[in-house]
Amino acid sequence: MHIPMPPEFSKAAAHSAGRQVTIGKHDVAEKDGVFDLSIGLNYGQSIGSAQLLRWVTEHTELVSRPPYADWRCALTIGSTGSLEAAYRMFCDRNRGDSILTEEYSFSTALETAAPLGIKVFGVKIDDEGLIPASMDEILSTWDETARGARKPTVLYTVPSGQNPTGAMQGEQRRRGIYEICRKHDIFIFEDEPYYFLQMQPYTGPNAPALPPPATVEEFLGGLVPTLLSMDVDGRVMRHDSFSKVIVPGSRLGWVTASEQVIERYIRHAECCSQGPSGFSQLITYKLVDEEWGHEGYLKWLMNLRLEYTKRRNAILAACEKFLPREVVSWTPPAAGMFLWLKVDHQLHPDAATRCLIDIEQEIFDLCIDKGVLACPGSWFRAEQDKPLSGLFFRTMFASASEEQMAVAIERFGAAVRDSYRMG
Amino acid sequence: MHIPMPPEFSKAAAHSAGRQVTIGKHDVAEKDGVFDLSIGLNYGQSIGSAQLLRWVTEHTELVSRPPYADWRCALTIGSTGSLEAAYRMFCDRNRGDSILTEEYSFSTALETAAPLGIKVFGVKIDDEGLIPASMDEILSTWDETARGARKPTVLYTVPSGQNPTGAMQGEQRRRGIYEICRKHDIFIFEDEPYYFLQMQPYTGPNAPALPPPATVEEFLGGLVPTLLSMDVDGRVMRHDSFSKVIVPGSRLGWVTASEQVIERYIRHAECCSQGPSGFSQLITYKLVDEEWGHEGYLKWLMNLRLEYTKRRNAILAACEKFLPREVVSWTPPAAGMFLWLKVDHQLHPDAATRCLIDIEQEIFDLCIDKGVLACPGSWFRAEQDKPLSGLFFRTMFASASEEQMAVAIERFGAAVRDSYRMG
Ligand SMILES: Cc1ncc(COP(=O)(O)O)c(C=O)c1O
Ligand SMILES: Cc1ncc(COP(=O)(O)O)c(C=O)c1O
């Protein structure tokens, strides 16, 4: 079996593009490798193949070095699937279980909780995401009857480049969140598809860029520590995914948690997914272990960092050029692929007479008329029955070209101006 | 991307072994195909890629031609996953829902139902599998209080080469089962990983073999009709899988049912698996559509038929040679990969003083001592709390060589002789 490198993503990756790697049927028996078709394509363990599992475990050790002995990894069919399993493992509708998350949260995570009958409550956010004090207040004043649910036992959070707000929790913020979780004995689902899309600091439209990390060590040392790395209690289940850093179509990721949690996870996988696709595992293994190794993979991520930095800077430049700064504001994203645009609803000419959701819909429709999709904040509300707290739109800088992004932002600006009758 | 044909399975398949197929990144844009890496490896629809979905739909039309208009297919991550989803769609522990299945049933299916809180009840079986009259009686005399569950609303059945009994429901048997399901308004999960492993009729150790089907049409015409093909009410959800006919590691299959059921299935997949691996879909598509086409795939299945016929005949020959016919009997399997050995417990020297499960364990342990694994019937009981109805052992003729199978059967025979003190 011959596999190509993943679609070349940046010029910097070109050195490894176009190479071919070979996977034979009996490489292992023939002492030509440790993972081959005869192993990868048969029924395997639900935890994943020993080979790729070893690799992700080493990688996790390099990145997070969890501060307790009996942590383990298990391969998954991606974070959507592992998150659904985690909900089912930790929450029970019959017990009235509930979870906390950012007040604007990843819509699929919300849609996954809903059919399981798990109630979701939103925690206030700022530029650094979830606010520990808000979480503490909610938990300290929990009234089961008024809330119609048991006091939450789980926090679902996306610490880096959160979807949809793009917010990045800094190290102190993370430590603060972890402390509140200890105080109220909350288990944490750390969902981190964008962790390795931490970008170069944004220096503004005209200042020179900072030099990128020169070495793999510098790159790793510069990343904000993971919640898993702070987890002295074994209360974190971290969800990693290859979706945003290699290809989403692999449907491949992994979870890391205490041995007890992983054991439950595997039991679940045995009567559900039976582990990820052997093709996906084989191809990914060949790439990240045999072709790249840990250092090569980290270099790949360093390239992604620069690629996303460029894209982020391009969308910010477009915003600065095309958006009416009097009413639209934003925080330059430090990670991920989302830019969250805040529109000052108090300045809207109809602010006194129309409700927010109405104005949001108007701007959304105007955008569609102009040929651009800006996802409205209401789609991401953790509590769908609460009034909106502001006018927000999520934009993305993952795949469009710089020119396309500029056109999109210009159209969004025009839609806002139309709605605000800025002439 | 270059992919090989699947591991060559029989000499008859050798004509296509070793070929290479190429998948490019932008074949579609470059008009060199309809499915490429840029499509297959991105996020896709949870129902599966349009290309492979079209293929499985055409294949289902060829094989089952469901007798109503709005049937649809959806790709799955294999039958274990689709079955788990189906249980969750159709059954609710809070309602006390229950299902029926063969009294000895696929252990993973039982283990999947258990954590969902779904009660499973066994239907009596004979050489042709599930007995409609037994099902009718159970349903007609259902006593909710005595049973501790609502009257079953779902039948889970494996009509062809059932796991573990190897039983094959004939056409009349299937029609009988369907009629009872209509009478009691039972929905059917038709789980058919072994459907295409229907073998040549067994003609005994010495009689000449019958000629195999000469054409694809003859092959298709000779298969026992599917429950789906009889489904005038839309009460069947059929689960197909590539696991037993291409490779299990693909984690790829599909379901077929009414549009309404498939719509629910897709909503489920959207917040769980998000559809099967893009690598698995691409490689399978290249193989079954571009390389083989429908006719080529059916010819592949015809080869499997002969290969399994050979293996089945070999294990039966070993049984005739090595087993003590006074106490061990069997029905030559007509489909699948399992041979179910019945041991006459009434003839056991301790029949009057020891319980069945004890004797079963003894034979199992004796087998292990001699280096052979024979799965005891108790592992497969639909109702684990009921006494065993007989002494059964499941053997398999899927992957061992003829020599290995002979050794295994010889050892099993010796274990039985030891236990029966036939010395
Ligand atoms: C926060 C978050 N988690 C998980 C996912 C999905 O990851 P996967 O492809 O591994 O299921 C996404 C994708 O958009 C996401 O934004
Ligand atoms: C009856 C039956 N259904 C389903 C399966 C599993 O199929 P899949 O690999 O598609 O999950 C098996 C495998 O042993 C089986 O025997």
Automatic annotation (TrEMBL), chains A, B:
Keywords: Aminotransferase, Pyridoxal phosphate, Transferase. Belongs to the class-I pyridoxal-phosphate-dependent aminotransferase family. Transmembrane segments: none annotated. GO terms for biological process: aromatic amino acid family catabolic process; lysine biosynthetic process via aminoadipic acid; tyrosine biosynthetic process. The keyword Transferase applies. This is Pyridoxal phosphate-dependent transferase. It comes from the Eukaryota. Its cofactor is pyridoxal 5'-phosphate. GO terms for molecular function: 2-aminoadipate transaminase activity; aromatic-amino-acid transaminase activity; pyridoxal phosphate binding. Residues 75-412 form the Aminotransferase class I/classII large domain. Signal peptide: none annotated. It holds the Pfam family Aminotran_1_2. InterPro entries: Aminotransferase_I/II_large, Class-I_PLP-dep_aminotransf, PyrdxlP-dep_Trfase, PyrdxlP-dep_Trfase_major.
